[in-house]
Amino acid sequence: MSIKKLGPDNKLLERWHDAQIVLFGGSAGSFKILFRIIKDLPEKLGKTVILIIHRKKNFFSEIEKLFAENSRMYMREIEDKDILKTNTMYIAPANYHTLIEDGGYFSLDVSEPVWYSKPSIDVTFESAAEVYGNKCAAILLSGANQDGAGGMLKLRESGALTIAQEPADAEMPEMPRSAINLGAADYILTQDEIFKLLLS
């Protein structure tokens, strides 16, 4: 399957509407686009949304509070054994890896960082591929390392819809470019094209 730029593509829209789980992975340079996403997504999206964002180890962050105060969808930080619920947005906590388990619940893992990151986007993407496969859509945004590329490839191989932000459109292009170079992305979209899809 070749990588496509977004045009009038009914197949893309069909796969987006069929997805039950939506995963967003981001690191350096992804805050602005993620903030816009959480503000714009409707309260009754009909999907479960999961955000995996790199944050500095042991660095207190107000990001969860800021996102929750501006989200139209109910939002919470993931706790161990939380059940995945529709029309809920979850954010992976700092200093843990977040896995999705068979049975539709989260588990938190304290093993070593992956790509110097905990939470690791790869870890969550790979677990989602194993449990939900083609029921997933995953979008990999700006970032300064290769985390997320391998996990996105697993998702694509499982039948999930995989989208990388256009590197030229990203503040830090390394993360989406790594996914594209690995052949992990079905589509390469700019920020505006991503928003157009999410609100379609």
From TrEMBL:
Domain CheB-type methylesterase positions: 15-200
UniProt xrefs under InterPro entries: CheB_C, Sig_transdc_resp-reg_Me-estase
Alphabetized GO MF terms: phosphorelay response regulator activity; protein-glutamate methylesterase activity
Annotated active site: S27, H54, D147
Listed Pfam families: CheB_methylest
Catalysed reactions listed for this entry: [protein]-L-glutamate 5-O-methyl ester + H2O = L-glutamyl-[protein] + methanol + H(+)
Keywords noted in UniProt: Chemotaxis, Hydrolase
Classification via CDD domains: CheB
Superkingdom classification of source: Bacteria
EC number: 3.1.1.61
Gene3D superfamilies reported in the protein's UniProt record: Methylesterase CheB, C-terminal domain
Cellular component per GO, a single term: cytoplasm
GO annotation, biological process: chemotaxis
PANTHER family (alphabetical): PROTEIN-GLUTAMATE METHYLESTERASE/PROTEIN-GLUTAMINE GLUTAMINASE, PROTEIN-GLUTAMATE METHYLESTERASE_PROTEIN-GLUTAMINE GLUTAMINASE 1
Protein name per Swiss-Prot or TrEMBL: protein-glutamate methylesterase
